[in-house]
Amino acid sequence: MRLKVNGSEHDLDADIRTSLLDALRDHLALTGSKKGCDHGQCGACTVLVNGRRVNACLTLAVMHEGDEITTIEGLGAPGHLHPMQESFLHHDGYQCGYCTPGQIVSAVGMLGEARDNWPSHASESLDGQVELTDAEISERMSGNLCRCSAYPNIVDAIRDASGKGAA
């Protein structure tokens, strides 16, 4: 199979039952996306597929030939961080750091959804501009768990990065 990850094409010789997460970690050595629960419940494996959030542990790699896959490694690099990565550092939006790559990638995807005015369960209106209140951000990020409970700092980081065009 051929996958486009972080702007580069990769040919993989992998079993068709290989999850996208295992393809990224085991075949491409992109270990930023973490295997937390391997059941789609924690969000540590979140990547962007064509700009939308996906739990990489729940989808097969072969299903994403032709798609644009972005991992945490594709968002920024040392010395040239993505605005969301900078904001997480500035607001101390991590503790142990295990969930942080998934949180950051999910936050970037979430801001894209909000920019496109996709409502959530916390949205005031179904047909208007999405206001990123604490409740709105928390609802939209509810698929990403943090065992260390850094949630207040994560919300602050996302709110700050949203004003910097982090989506």
From TrEMBL:
Keywords: 2Fe-2S, Iron, Iron-sulfur, Metal-binding, Oxidoreductase
MF-aspect GO terms: 2 iron, 2 sulfur cluster binding; metal ion binding; oxidoreductase activity, acting on the aldehyde or oxo group of donors
Keyword field contains rRNA processing: no
PROSITE patterns xref list: 2FE2S_FER_1, 2FE2S_FER_2
InterPro entries listed in its UniProt record: 2Fe-2S-bd (IPR002888), 2Fe-2S-bd_dom_sf (IPR036884), 2Fe-2S_ferredoxin-like_sf (IPR036010), 2Fe-2S_ferredoxin-type (IPR001041), 2Fe2S_fd_BS (IPR006058), Aldehyde_Oxdr_Iron-Sulfur (IPR052914), Beta-grasp_dom_sf (IPR012675)
Domain annotation 2Fe-2S ferredoxin-type: ranges: 1-75
Superkingdom, natural source: Bacteria
Name recorded for this polypeptide: (2Fe-2S)-binding protein
